[in-house]
UniProtKB/TrEMBL annotation:
This is Type VI secretion system baseplate subunit TssE. It comes from the Bacteria. Residues 33-119 form the IraD/Gp25-like domain. Gene3D superfamilies: 3.10.450.40. It holds the Pfam family GPW_gp25. The gene is tssE.
């Protein structure tokens, strides 16, 4: 992960955007565009399974299909996995804080609030995402605040 620490922060496109090369600018014209780019990258990271990338085998989140773990334990476990993934693979944000959001009506549905600080372009600007896991085990992000 040392390469990420030396990453040229003048370019703000995510790894996935740079690989696709769809004419994505390395500078974002607005805060909203930068946050959308980060959101896209987080979705790619969080919906990847470990071992799917030969160059970064630890990229992604393991399948959480373990019936022996109760809801509280799984929330704590997933929280730490999400934080690690974000810190390791999204260098454009820092001070990442992932908090479980408990829904009394749907106790088995995993939901989290992700708070972070931008480390490029709009340095110091806070961003907040709501993350949930659907029935097909895909992660989705909603922008909570901008």
């Amino acid at each position: 992960m040392a390469a990420l620490l030396n990453w040229d922060r003048d370019g703000a496109a995510s790894l996935f955007e740079r690989i696709q090369g769809n004419g994505v600018s390395y500078k974002h014209s607005s805060l909203k565009e930068l946050v959308q780019s980060i959101k896209y990258n987080l979705l790619c990271i969080l919906n990847t399974h470990p071992g799917a990338s030969q160059s970064a085998p630890e990229l992604g989140i393991a399948d959480l299909n373990d019936a022996t773990i109760d809801t509280v334990d799984i929330s704590i476990r997933v929280k730490s996995i999400i934080e690690r993934c974000i810190l390791d693979f999204e260098p454009r944000i820092v001070n990442v804080d992932v908090q479980p959001m408990i829904n009394e009506d749907e106790p088995l549905r995993l939901r989290f609030r992700i708070k972070a600080i931008l480390s490029i372009e709009y340095i110091g600007h806070p961003i907040v995402f709501n993350l949930h896991l659907d029935n097909d085990r895909h992660y989705y992000l909603d922008l909570a605040d901008l």
